[in-house]
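fyi for ur records
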Amino acid sequence: MWRNPFKWKKTTSDDVLAKAAAAQPVSVAELAKINQLAEQALDLYRNTMPEFDYDSQSVKFMSDSINEQRLQLINNREASVTASNLLGAFFGKAAMQCNQGVKSEWIKSGKEIGIAFIHGTMEYHIYPINRVMHQIQAGEERSSYQMFVSVDEWVKSCAAKQFQQ
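which gave:
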């Protein structure tokens, strides 16, 4: 019988609010490591695809690649963690570069690293490294690309609200 090597609990709205309240900017050293990981991911793909960049097409391609390789990753904890860190950093940097209409910063909440997108008094947090790990476990239903798209939708809704005022 297959045993789930990942131990996640069901998240409640109180958990989400507590995580957001506890979030602090990452340190300079952590930010340097995130940027290094994102660049490594970019370089890996650019070797065979020179057009690969921090854009929607590349994010979609990489998310699809996770789905194709997840069965090899799911039973190898070390490979799953490495892939999550590398690809999560890439997804996060791509989300920030594609949504420059709002302020964004890498944050840390407990041991989790994510990004806060900020527009006025509204904030939207994503945790791309965690999301890759979830996608490795659950497949397309926890797609990193869908997380990426959700940021774009949130930014567009902020712009629409601002326009209406």
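Residues 14-164 form a domain with the Four Helix Bundle (Hemerythrin (Met), subunit A) fold (CATH 1.20.120.1090). thats all i got for now
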